[in-house]
Amino acid sequence: VKWTMEVLCYGLSLPLDRNTVKLCVDVYTDWMMALVSQPSSTPLPISRDPNLYVQRILRHLYILFLPRSDQVSPFYMSICQQVLGSVQSLARETSVMSRETWETLLHFLLRINHIMLAPPAPAGGISDLFVVVLLDVWLLACSRCFPSRSLWQTFRQMFSSWRHQPVVVEQWSRVAAALTSRLLPQMFGPSFPHFKVPDEDSALVPANMEDERVSHTWFKFLHMFSNPVDLIRPAVSSSMSSSQDEVFEREDSQLPGIFFRAMRGVSELVNAFLGLTTATHFRDRVPSLGFSGSRGPFRDRLPPYGFSRPRSGSAPPTPVNFPSVPDALPSKSSSPPHKRQLRAEHVPKLSSTSSPPHHWMSFSPIPPSSLPLSSSAHPLRCAMDSLLHLFGSWLFDAAGTTFVSDRSCKRTDVTVISEQWAAGRAEACGTLCRIFTCKKTAENIQSIYLSRFYLILLHSLQEVCPPVAVSILLNSTCLFCCDLRGVNLLLPSFLSVLEMVLLDRYQHLSDGTGT
């Protein structure tokens, strides 16, 4: 049997112009099922020790997925589908697989996915099937034989080099949502609003997975993607792979969409933890909102320094220099990653003469997840600080980022690049607004979070990027009704943007009627 396996291993490396490779795959996929059932065609040595021989078979099958010139042919794709289907069936149906075989199987799937997804070119063909099978088998392993710490680290390192592929962020969002749907009833009880996900997504998590394993798997999968902002600023990430660096060199047009999809996935998770449900009647009204960057009558009447009148329980009046933003945030000698500061030199000032009119009609509508929500947060929701500890680092970085790659600036206008990433920033800003508007009475929020939130809103409103500003306005309808300390310092910025929206809308309607 061992000699025959060596012959089959060599046969997998032959060209595809004959049926040799297909016959080798047929034999190996048949022998693999010895861990499920043992038909009469199974050799006796494999029947006696199926785990040992399945591990060797998986190592040999890896040769089939090595780069080759004819790997885009339909024949090759059908062979890959056969192997992936057999591996998925093996993981679902077996009950006698040892830990060593589980780890060999997971290593096999990681390696073939890395071959398919790590190159900078878009992964075509059946790349989505590769990712689906990997995540499905990995979740099965979490239920039956939880992967080791070193295996999780390998998965995360490889995953970071796949983030430039749209299918990766899409499948990551599906798994994160499915795990969150299982996690929330464990944390908050059955009375907490159910986080609805499609049936095919909820089926990704095995029904018999223990509660403790659900929470561990959820946390590890959540941080599998790392900070989505690294897609915008590769120079900040010390672990950026060479393949991703090549993607930035050729200015991949898919990265802004991937960034937005990642932030939308995070936004959906935040809504689930808050117990919010999404409204569905704002999409048609969003395109009618417009912006004009010119100075309006209200802005002309603003004094150089404004004072906000404190409401009961709020902070003392704070002087606000409206055209600018605070120079720095309060910092500590050793601040954790979620308390990274935004530097003032990255915050542009609003120009009253150079800013061209921004009409929302020229932008695509805000996605449904960026729109306001129809109900308030559930009383059983977690504390604000806990939610910000979990998601704050990603949201603050995404909402306040102004980084632009120097390589991109050589060939593209900075304003154009900023607008490309505006959808993801709008998602992050809207999510932050929803979090802070859900504050309970007398609930304490760390000052570092409040200061970063205020700084981001001042920056975003003065920048007057239409998708970002509209997302803030639609998700901040109750912001000034909350017991947020010092929130009144945002009033001048909000009133100025509202003035631009209303005046531009009035002008647009007047031009349309000819009056």
Compile the SSE list and pairings.
Layout: H1 2-11, H2 20-32, H3 44-48, H4 50-61, H5 74-93, H6 99-117, H7 127-144, H8 149-160, H9 166-188, H10 199-202, H11 211-222, H12 242-249, H13 255-274, H14 297-300, E1 305-307, E2 319-321, H15 384-400, H16 406-409, H17 414-420, H18 422-437, H19 447-463, H20 466-474, H21 491-513
Antiparallel strand pairs: 1-2
Helix pairs in contact: 2-4, 2-5, 4-6, 5-7, 6-7, 6-8, 7-9, 9-11, 9-13, 13-15, 13-18, 15-18, 15-19, 18-20
Which key terms come to mind for this protein?
elongated; two-stranded antiparallel ribbon; mainly alpha; 515 residues
The rounded distance between the terminal residues' Cα atoms is: 89 Å
Going across the major beta sheet, what is the strand order?
A: 1-2
- Main β-sheet description: 2 strands, antiparallel
SS summary, helix count: 21
Give the helix level as a range of percent. Answer: 40-55%
Indicate the proportion of strand residues.
Answer: under 5%
Q: Give the helices and strands as they follow along the chain.
A: HHHHHHHHHHHHHHEEHHHHHHH
Mean pLDDT: 77
Protein name: Ral GTPase-activating protein subunit alpha/beta N-terminal domain-containing protein
InterPro entries: RALGAPB, RGPA/RALGAPB_N
Pfam families: RALGAPB_N
Domain Ral GTPase-activating protein subunit alpha/beta N-terminal: 77-190
